[in-house]
Amino acid sequence: MAAWRQSEEEARADIRACHDILARGSKSFVAASRMLPKRLHDRTAALYAFCRVSDDAVDLGTDVRKELARLHERLDRIYAGKPEQDPVDRAFCRLVREIAIPQTIPAALLDGFAWDAERRQYPTQADLEAYCARVASTVGVMMTLVFGARSPVLLARACDLGLAMQLTNICRDVGEDARAGRIYLPLDWLAEAGLDAGGLMARPEPSPALASVVKRTLALADKFYRRSDGGMSLYPHDCRLGVRSARLIYAEIGRVVARNGYDSVSTRAYTSKARKLLLLVRALPVLLWPGQATNEPADPAVKFLVDAVAT
Q1: What is the CATH number of the domain that holds 30?
Q2: Tens of pLDDT along 280-289?
Q3: pLDDT tens-digit readout, 264-300
Q4: CA torsion, points 43, 49, 51, 55, in degrees to nearest 10?
Q5: Which residues of 250-260 are buried (b: 16+ CB within 10 A; e: fewer)?
Q6: Which one of 5, 53, 86, 245 has the largest count of C-beta atoms within 10 Å of its C-beta?
Q7: How many structural domains are present in the chain?
Q8: DSSP string across the chain
Q9: Both 167 and 300 in a single domain?
Q10: Model-wide pTM > 0.90
């Protein structure tokens, strides 16, 4: 990356703008990020702001292809060390320079946003995992680099956590997504349950058949949550509580969906502030007992992300 400089005052102003975006963002992400050490707050805000602004540009834009091309152009400028005069671009430029984020990672995230904009559907579990890798595991990789860790084993476990979280989000939002003309559940799983995407979007309603597919998807998420636990001891000590908190908070969403009879069409799962506080307390033991590291290979859907950091 080419040399690029700005004054400390300008840099602080950019970071303040990123913190403002974070404050207006995901409540679950904000709750978990507060558990991270203060030394990482600015970098976390810069990363979140880049992801949020990019997602909004695609989601709210009137010409999706034009917006995506524009985002890739901005990303190229960031990696060339010539960011546009935008506080988020400048803050992200500093971040990728400081912690060496390969361009493959945020580029894959933008690809995931493109798939969303296309309302792409996913014929199989592998196809769905490929989507989750782009919109969620990419963030897990970048957060791990923010923490200062680059172990391939840890990156694989961080990717597992991203897969699990996105699968949980999908299960929570089945009804909302269907009403918006989007289906993320694997089409072959729906077919096995006697359902089809077109019918579900035309008339989203809870049913035992749909509940069985949501249950199956949550079971897949749980598999990845368990795999992600095998990386907890590899995170820097002062980052473990934040990661464990995020893992428990997101997994709880799946538990609520299950308690609702796997009906995420007529109701939407959420966790109360009191419940989140309890989960944060339950995360505390990770500081003393992080568990054993596991050396399972990266899931095929995320291997390209892990490899990008290693090269």
Answers
A1: 1.10.600.10
A2: 899 999 999 9
A3: 999 999 888 899 889 989 999 999 999 999 999 999 9
A4: 180
A5: bbbbbbbbbeb
A6: 245
A7: 2
A8: -------HHHHHHHHHHHHHHHHTS-HHHHHHHTTS-GGGHHHHHHHHHHHHHHHHHHHH-S-HHHHHHHHHHHHHHHHTT---S-HHHHHHHHHHHHHT--THHHHHHHHHHHHHHTT---SSHHHHHHHHIIIIIHHHHHHHHHHT---HHHHHHHHHHHHHHHHHHHHHTHHHHHHTT---S-HHHHHHTT--HHHHHHS----HHHHHHHHHHHHHHHHHHHHHHTTGGGS-GGGHHHHHHHHHHHHHHHHHHHHTTT--SSS-----HHHHHHHHHHHGGGGT-------PPPPTTTHHHHHHHH-
A9: yes
A10: yes
- Joined together, the tokens standing for residue 95 give 């971040």
Read off the amino acid at residue 82.
K
Tokens standing for residue 307? 């490899």
